[in-house]
Amino acid sequence: MQKLSTRHLLGIKDLTPADIELIMATAREFKEVINRPIKKVPSLRDVTIANVFFENSTRTRLSFELAEKRLSADTLNFSASGSSVKKGETLLDTVNNILAMKVDMIVMRHASPGAPHFLAKHIKANIVNAGDGTHEHPTQALLDSFSMREKLGADLTGKKVAIIGDILHSRVALSNILALKKQGAEVTLCGPSTLIPRYITDLGVNVSHDVKKTLAWCDVANVLRIQLERQQIKYFPSLREYSLYFGINKKMLDDLNKEIIVMHPGPINRGVELSSDAADSHHSIILDQVENGVAVRMAVLYLLAGQN
């Protein structure tokens, strides 16, 4: 069996192109499994996985839980809101208490960038980063790449991908940029200048502030949510004004003289970054992303468990 070059999935930055190819190939096999009448395999029957979420989540948490169940793993679910974290318990103490129950793998979401990397230095269990602050969200980028490959062909070399919206506060954006560049895609970021980090072009991406030109250029438009909960100051006058200049509707997509794919990591602010008719149009593969998320996370968990 081929192995990943790393014991943890802390970020796309740590993966080699060969690692990404292995995850994609394994996810394709698991997607066949989850579309069978019997959707379970005994691959992780003796493995215990703890989902440790210090931030709210719907899609990512449910996706990981379902992936674990499909692999026959035993699962523990931890939510910070109802835990001893509220009494002042440290991150390391919390996780060590969970590991004392003989847990093999930790899937963690945390508001602080670098929290999974800190844990990886102090504990023996495999760690999967399910999002750390505004830093990275590696499994989202992997499922996005998997979804693009399904529609565009097995290889993303030379494909043109636009990431549109709140780049500054998005962990999805950074992970996607790193994953796409490692697969040979061209990347353009589009949004208000206040929401695009100053040195992001160092990653080898282009920057645009014109949505229509960007849509005319790209094969894929990955549209990001405006993350008001992470914004301490106002980055644009109003949501209405943002929608006017950077929102995407179905007419804009239909007016293009080519077919493009529209993606969104969710949750969608309907009527802000995407109109409902665009989000629900034939251009959209948003629900495919959700389905593919289970297969990709099954692949990641399976491959990491194989490292032990």
List keywords for this structure.
single chain; 15% strand; globular; 5-stranded parallel beta sheet; alpha/beta; 11 helices; 4-stranded parallel beta sheet; 308 residues
Give an overview in words:
This protein has 11 helices and 9 strands. It has helices at 17-34, 59-70, 91-99, 115-120, 138-152, 171-182, 211-217, 239-246, 250-254, 276-279, 286-305; strands at residues 48-53, 74-79, 105-110, 126-132, 160-164, 186-190, 206-208, 220-223, 261-263. The radius of gyration is 19 Å and the shape is globular.
Question: What distance separates the N and C termini?
Answer: 13 Å
Secondary-structure element order, N to C: HEHEHEHEHEHEEHEHHEHH
Q: What is the number of helical segments per DSSP (H or I, 4+ residues)?
A: 11
Largest sheet: 5 strands, parallel
Structural class computed from helices and strand pairing: alpha/beta
Number of strands: 9
Poorly predicted runs are 229-233
Mean pLDDT over all positions: 90
Rough outline: globular
Estimate percent helicity: 25-40%
Query: Could you give the order of strands across the largest sheet?
Result: 7-6-5-8-9
Which value, in Å, is the CA radius of gyration?
19 Å
The share of residues in extended strands comes to 5-15%
